[in-house]
Each structure stands twice: as C-alpha cells, then as structure tokens.
Specification:
- The complex is a heterodimer of chains A (284) and B (346).
- Helices cover 77% and strands 0% of the residues of chain A.
- Chain A is built from 12 helices and no strands.
- In chain A, helix 11 (236-244) runs antiparallel to helix 12 (250-282).
- The longest helix of chain A is centred in the N-terminal third of the chain and has 34 residues, at 58-91.
- Chain B has helices spanning 44-52, 94-104, 109-122, 138-151, 168-185, 196-202, 220-225, 230-235; strands at residues 4-15, 18-29, 33-37, 59-64, 67-68, 80-82, 156-160, 188-193, 205-210, 213-218, 240-246, 251-254, 257-262, 271-275, 280-284, 292-299, 303-310, 313-320, 331-336, 341-345.
- In chain B, helix 2 (94-104) crosses helix 3 (109-122), helix 2 (94-104) runs parallel beside helix 4 and helix 3 packs across helix 4.
- Chain B has 346 residues and is of the alpha+beta class.
- Chain B folds into 2 domains: 4-234, 3-Layer(aba) Sandwich (Rossmann fold); 242-345, OB fold (Dihydrolipoamide Acetyltransferase, E2P) (Beta Barrel), CATH 2.40.50.140.
- Classes of the chains: A mainly alpha (284), B alpha+beta (346).
- The interface between A and B is medium-sized, with 22 and 36 residues.
Chain lengths: 284, 346
C-alpha cells in the first residue's frame, strides 16, 4: 500500500463524482434487463422469458454470428496494424514525424463520423475514385462492390477502432525494459528474433487488453454498420434499432441488448482468463 | 605470460557535447578478471556497453584476438552479459532462460538439457530448472543470470554492477562465488562496479576511471600501494591528501614533520602527498611541538579509527586497538610510514 499515493478512503472520496456519474448507466442496464423480462412488448408488465424465446430465430442467430465474426475479424486486423504502428511511433526520432503520425492515427476520432462515411463512399462507392481508376486501367468491367456489404462495414470498424489499440500499445512498448532486449541480443538474437521471443511475449497482457477494448467497441458498433452496411449488414446494433424503431418491440430490443452485453462480457472474461493461465504456466 | 585477448585502442565516446570517454587504451589478458571502477558518471558503464556492442564509440577501435569488432552487432559477438537488473525473461522458466542462447545457436534438445543441468549444478541450484523466474530469491536470480550468460561459452564475460541489488552478506558470498566460477571457466571477464572493496576482491586488474579518463590500470595491490593520481589515492581506500614541502636536504615534510622520504630532484612546484590511514601512527605526547589533537576515536574491535586535527587538516588514522590508544582530546604526535607515501606534483 505504500506505493500508492492515496489510501483507499481518500481514493473513494476522490472518485465519488465519477462513481455517481456511472450510477445512471448501471441503472439503465438494470432497467434494460428488467424490460427484457417483461411479458408485454411495449411496457414493463409481468415476468416472462417470451422476449428471449422470440429471439430464437434464424434471423437473430445470423445477426449474432455476423456481429461476433465482424468484431473478431476487425479486431484481428486492427491488432495486425496497431502493433507495427506502435513500434513505429516509439522508434521515430523526429518529434515532428511522431506528432504527424499521432494525428494521422487519431483522425478517425477527431473527424465527424458522417464525414468519414461519405469519404468512404466517395472513395469506394460503385462510381467512386477506386472503381473509376480500376475501370480506366481496364482491370475490371463492372464496379467492385466494396460498400453496403460486410467488406464496407469491416473497413469502417477497422478505421474507427484503430486508435483505441495503438495508444495503449505504445505505452506498453515504451514500458518494456531495454535490458531484456539487450540480454536477448547478447545471447545471439537478431532484431526479429528478439521481437518474436522477448518483446511480443512480454507485451502479451497489454496486447490482449487492447484487443479486448477493440472487440467490445466493434461488437457494440451501431453507426458504422448503419452508414456503411445499409440495411443489408444486420449487426446486432442495427437489429436492435430495427426492433425499436419500425417494430416498437421494446422488450425484444432489451433482450437482444442483454444478449449483446453478455456475449461481449463472456469474450472479455475468456480472453483475460487465457492470459492468466498462459502467463502462469510460463511463470510470469 | 602476455596473451592479449581484448584490445581497446584510443577509444572515445561523446553524447552530444558530453565526453563520456576520452582516449581509452586498454589491453585485457586472456582469462583475466578486469574490474572497471569509478564513481557514477565516470564512463565505466559506457565502456562496458561499447565492449558489448550496445553503443558505438565516436572514435577508436575494439580488437578481439587481433580482429576488429568495433562495428560488429552485439548478437554476433558471442559475449555473455549480466545486467544490473539481471533482465531474466519473466515469460520463461529457469531452464528456458539458461538454454535461450543455445536455442538460438540451434543446439539439439539433448545438448540444451545437458548444458542447463551442468550449469545448474555449477551454481549449486540443481532443482530449480522448471521454476518460473518470479519464484526465485534475489540470490538465486543472480546465479541464474550468471548461468544464462555462461551457457553460451562466451568469448568475454561482461557484468554491469551485478551484485549491487543484493544485501551485504549475500553480496560477500556472491563475490567469492563469482571469482570461483570465473576461474573454473577460465573466461576473460570485465566487471563494472563502483564498490572498491568488491573490485579489490574480484579483480586481477583494476581499471580506475574518472570523468571518462583511465586514471590507472594495474593490479589491486599496485593501485592501492602506488596510486597513480590523487583521485585514485582518494577513491581507493580514501587516503589523506596533504600539502607537502621539500626540506633543504631534499626530503619530504608533511605538516612540518620530516618523513625522511627523498624527493627526486626533477620535481618542481607545489607537491601533494597521499598517505593511507593505516600508514600513520599516533603517540600520546605532552611535547610542546605536538600540534595534533584527537577529535574523534572509535574502537571497531580489531582496529581503531581516529580523526586528528593538525594545522587545519583533518587526518584519518587507523591502527590496531590497544589499551593505551589515544582518546578524544589527547594531544598526539604523528608518524608517517615512509614506504607508504605517494607524492604528486600539484
């Protein structure tokens, strides 16, 4: 306890406003949980599992599968992009280059989502820049459909969630002790060997942490699948909205929301558990 | 018996405008244990890191067995290194740590296993192969780090203040252990330390550095008995540095006391002399000429230490404890051992 600057009591007092701000969110979660157990579709009335039973349709099953699949693929691609970018950010010597790269990576967070989506449409749409170029070059006859399908949503998810992964990894890469790397080097490991045998294993817990954040963010995505997928890519966020807006099936939407939360929590718990057992085995 | 192994040739290193090393020349004999010794910031760690290949010198060369290795990448040098933080890999077991260098050299599984077993026996920890590094005590980690570096049969064995994190008693044991290991492996060793006792205990050759300059490079006894510069005299065993005058018959006088030491006739200008605390003896005196007063005395058991005030200088004296030893407040006469005085031109 001597290493922390605040005692538990002091920290509690310090965090009280934040804690109070979180309470309504917790209340909303409980409210949704209660609504999902309602016997009525439009109001909270009675207790029934009917809303959950109604979800057992091939349509909703496909939506769950699609959501997990897209969130997983997007997270995997984001990690493949974020790790090299994080290494690049920590190895750049020029401060100006570092700032430029930081801003570039942060752009998706700074830019309005609608502007980004229209940017994608101008670039990748059926008569967009890419298709025009490929047609001019004679490489294709008919335009490639990159938007309003899974590919489009995947691109959007990757772009919006990349900054969430890069910056935590940068912090973790900076925290790796240079003596560990030099020790590997003195024992005969070249740069790529050090990366594989020492750096990445040491980074495993923060990497899984970053991947978990990205996965949770992508699994609950709503705006991106709506803007870049149209109605055709029914990720759970979109499916839930459709239950509310045209169908007024509040209890069904609440049940679907609860399923989404539970699935995401399950994935996070399993990944944290995987890190723990693999680290214990090798003795971290 | 000269068999040079590592040769450091007019090596300099600057970080920006800071000169960390200035024209270092050094020859390390095969199988020797060399200690780089100096206060923090003297350049000793930079010199070790250049030998290991983690830093490039600004100028100068490193020769190993006559061939130039200055630009060789650290992972191609084949030097085993023990780091200050030890830098054991936390995601590997003890055996995996020790075998890592052999794995990189594509040794067979059996070969790796045999070598790990052999080294665990050498460091007297035969049963810890499968333990995680986090389950080891400080002293055990120390030994594993040494075993990992020695497992690759290094051409040079480099250590950067490896014992500084251990408590005093464990450090004493490890020093003896380290010396024993080094001798049984016969490996040429360079160790960095700021602890002069440790350096004197381990080294065949001491290299004393200050402000990036090699002050003296010699055996511990030679460095202790004949310090080359006032800095060395003060840093190793903290000698008394006193202004000296030359009497008409060309003998050296300290604090007005003729020591009988003949000063070479070539020396001109002001002189300083370094005298070890144990090279001074005290005698109680009622003589009017005795101008020294004991200001502090402490009996450490076998020896007693005194602080003596004489002509505005505070002098440390150290000698065998006995019943008639001077006490605080006593007036004393000083006597210097003429064989133990080092003279420096100011």
């Amino acid at each position: 306890m001597s290493s922390t600057t605040l005692t538990q009591k002091q920290a509690l007092a310090f965090a009280t406003p934040a804690f109070i701000a979180l309470l309504p969110f917790l209340g909303a979660c409980l409210y949704i949980l209660r609504f999902s157990l309602s016997a009525e579709k439009g109001s909270i009335d009675g207790v029934s599992l009917q809303a959950y039973r109604d979800l057992m349709t091939p349509f909703f099953g496909r939506s769950v599968w699609l959501t997990l699949k897209l969130a997983f693929v997007a997270s995997a691609v984001v990690m493949l992009l974020a790790v090299p970018l994080a290494f690049l950010l920590t190895s750049l010597r020029s401060a100006a280059a570092r700032r430029l790269l930081t801003v570039t990576i942060l752009l998706p967070m700074i830019l309005n989502l609608l502007v980004q989506a229209y940017g994608w449409i101008l670039l990748l749409g059926p008569s967009g820049a890419l298709n025009t170029l490929l047609k001019t070059l004679g490489l294709i006859d008919r335009p490639l459909f990159l938007l309003f399908n899974e590919t489009g949503v995947l691109l959007g998810l990757i772009q919006t969630s990349l900054p969430l992964a890069v910056f935590p990894i940068v912090g973790a890469v900076r925290a790796v002790s240079p003596e560990h790397l030099e020790a590997a080097s003195s024992l005969g490991a070249g740069h790529w060997r050090i990366l594989r045998d020492v750096t990445l294993p040491l980074l495993r817990p923060p990497l899984v942490g970053a991947a978990s954040i990205v996965f949770a963010f992508n699994a609950s995505a709503f705006a991106i699948p709506l803007l870049l997928g149209g109605r055709r890519v029914q990720m759970m966020g979109v499916a839930i909205r459709d239950m509310i807006s045209p169908l007024f099936n509040w209890s069904g939407a609440a049940a679907a929301g609860t399923v989404l939360i539970l699935l995401t929590v399950l994935v996070l718990v399993v990944s944290a558990w995987l890190v723990r057992i693999t680290t214990q085995k090798t003795g971290g | 018996m000269s068999d040079p192994h590592l040769h450091i040739e007019s090596l300099s290193k600057s970080f920006g405008t800071v000169e960390a090393l200035k024209d270092v020349n050094l020859t390390v004999q095969r199988g020797a244990f060399v200690c780089l010794l100096g206060p923090s910031g003297c350049g000793k760690t930079t010199l070790l890191r250049i030998i290991a290949g983690f830093e490039q010198p600004s100028s100068g060369r490193l020769l190993l067995d006559g061939s130039d290795i200055t630009g060789l990448a650290p992972h191609r040098r084949g030097f085993g290194m023990v780091f200050q933080s030890l830098a054991l890999f936390p995601h590997m077991s003890v055996a995996e740590n020790i075998a890592y260098g052999l794995r990189l050299r594509k040794a067979s599984r059996q070969e790796q296993k045999d070598r790990v077993e052999e080294l665990l026996n050498v460091i007297e920890l035969p049963h810890i192969a499968d333990r995680p590094v986090s389950a080891l005590s400080g002293g055990q980690r120390q030994r594993v780090a040494i075993a990992r570096a020695l497992a690759i049969r290094p051409k040079l064995f480099l250590l950067d203040e490896p014992l500084s994190a251990l408590d005093a008693k464990l450090r004493d044991n490890m020093q003896i252990e380290l010396r024993r290991l080094q001798q049984s492996f016969g490996v040429t060793t360079v160790l960095v330390t700021h602890d002069q006792t440790e350096a004197m205990m381990l080294a065949d050759e001491l290299v004393v550095l200050s402000h990036g300059v090699v002050q003296q490079s010699a055996s511990p006894t030679e460095v202790y008995r004949h310090p080359a510069t006032p800095f060395v005299a003060d840093f190793i065993g903290s000698a008394n540095l006193l202004p000296a005058t030359v009497s008409p018959n060309r003998t050296l006088a300290l604090l007005g006391i003729d020591t009988g030491v003949t000063v070479p006739s070539v020396t001109v200008g002001a002189l300083r002399a370094a005298v070890r605390s144990e090279a001074i003896s005290l005698a109680r005196s009622t003589d009017e000429g005795a101008t020294a007063t004991v200001t502090f005395a402490r009996d450490l058991g076998p020896v007693t230490e005194w602080l003596v005030q004489a002509q505005g200088h505070e002098i440390r004296v150290r000698g065998a404890s006995h019943a008639a030893a001077p006490q605080t407040g006593d007036r004393v006469a000083l006597q210097f051992d003429p064989d133990r005085i080092s003279i420096f031109a100011e």
